[in-house]
Design goal:
Blueprint lengths: L3 E6 L5 E4 L15 E7 L3 H9 L4 H7 L7 E5 L2 E8 L12 E7 L3 E6 L4 H11 L7 H37 L4 H33 L7 H67 L14 H22 L6
Parallel strand pairs: 3-7
Antiparallel strand pairs: 1-2, 1-3, 4-5, 5-6, 6-7
Helix pairs in contact: 3-4, 4-5, 4-6, 5-6, 6-7
Length: 325
């Protein structure tokens, strides 16, 4: 993508590519038209244009900040916004969300990104076909909807992974190592995406309700629609996170139940052999008077006694419900 890309809008849905960017304070737009300047903030040319565009130092700082979270603040009749979109670059993690910084006024929108955002590419493709917004507010709403469109498949994929995880957990019993690793990855992605989508919802809602003359009622309706889309995605992430927590709890319960069964077996075995050990210990003491010491069949009699004791204990444990019926 170009380091600086400029579009002019006539206010009636027409869009055309411009060759040079006007000043941010004096865009030269007449009537309802406005200009959108998209800047690569990681390039020297993009930073030079921002420095020469007549922006306030506070606005430049907001557009070039290293770390950003979704928000919307007013600076006079200017709105400064930060939005986030999923990273769909090859080999990238979707939850490594890319920031889009926005300067919005009545006749100019400036957007700055440090990395390529596919939602912006989608919108520019539509603009190259002549399909443009009528107002700056409409442009922001379209950007927000494109960001939601690109995030939706990622959330759906998480949902499908959660479904497969639940099925695998049921088949694997207490969950194998791969299942637990998959569960941890789903929870991590859902938490990171949710961390940005809820503030993004608040930022769009803030812009919608602000008293700005250049926001039309139609703009506010489109922004409300974008807010609802982002809210739905955020709530879906909440549901995915809760489902993952339920699966995690089920795995812990199954493991605890299996351990309890194993401990029960060990306890029963110990209880069975405890009286046998007592009998053999008494008969094995090296003192006089041991019963059957002079009788050749005493050993087999003691073995029969031990077997009878063990059988009696097993019957008693079964009656008490400690063993399966």
């Amino acid at each position: 993508m170009d380091e600086i890309r400029i579009y002019g809008f006539d206010g009636a849905g027409g869009a055309r590519r411009l060759g040079a960017a006007p000043s941010a304070r004096f865009p030269g737009a007449s009537g309802p038209g406005f200009v959108w300047v998209h800047v690569d903030g990681a390039s020297a040319a993009g930073r030079d244009w921002l420095a020469a565009a007549g922006l306030d130092p506070l606005e430049i700082e907001a557009l070039l900040a290293e770390e950003t979270r979704p928000r919307c603040t007013l600076h006079g009749d200017i709105a400064l916004m930060n939005l986030r979109g999923v990273n769909l670059d090859p080999g990238a993690e979707p939850e490594d969300m890319i920031s889009l910084r926005l300067f919005i006024s009545a006749h100019m929108v400036i957007s700055v990104q440090m990395r390529t955002l596919q939602a912006v590419v989608d919108l520019m493709t539509a603009l190259d076909r002549g399909q443009g917004p009528g107002t700056p507010g409409d442009l922001i709403a379209r950007l927000a909807l494109r960001l939601a469109d690109r995030a939706e498949p990622v959330v759906m994929t998480l949902n499908e992974r959660a479904d497969r995880l639940e099925d695998a957990m049921e088949e694997a019993g207490q969950g194998d190592g791969a299942t637990r690793a998959e569960l941890a990855d789903i929870r991590r992605i859902a938490i990171v995406l949710r961390r940005y989508l809820f503030p993004q919802r608040d930022a769009l809602s803030t812009l919608e309700i602000e008293d700005l003359d250049w926001l039309t009622q139609r703009d506010r309706s489109r922004l409300r629609e974008a807010t609802e889309r982002v809210t739905r995605l955020a709530e879906e992430l909440d549901a995915i996170r809760d489902r993952a927590q339920v699966v995690h709890d089920q795995i812990l319960d199954m493991r605890a139940e299996a351990m309890n069964r194993q401990m029960l077996v060990l306890s029963v075995v110990a209880a069975v052999f405890l009286p046998m050990g007592l009998v053999t210990g008494l008969l094995g003491i090296n003192v006089g008077g041991i019963p059957g010491a002079a009788w050749p069949g005493a050993f087999w009699a003691v073995c029969a006694l031990l077997l009878a004791i063990g059988a009696g204990q097993l019957w008693l444990f079964r009656r008490m419900g400690l063993l399966g019926r």
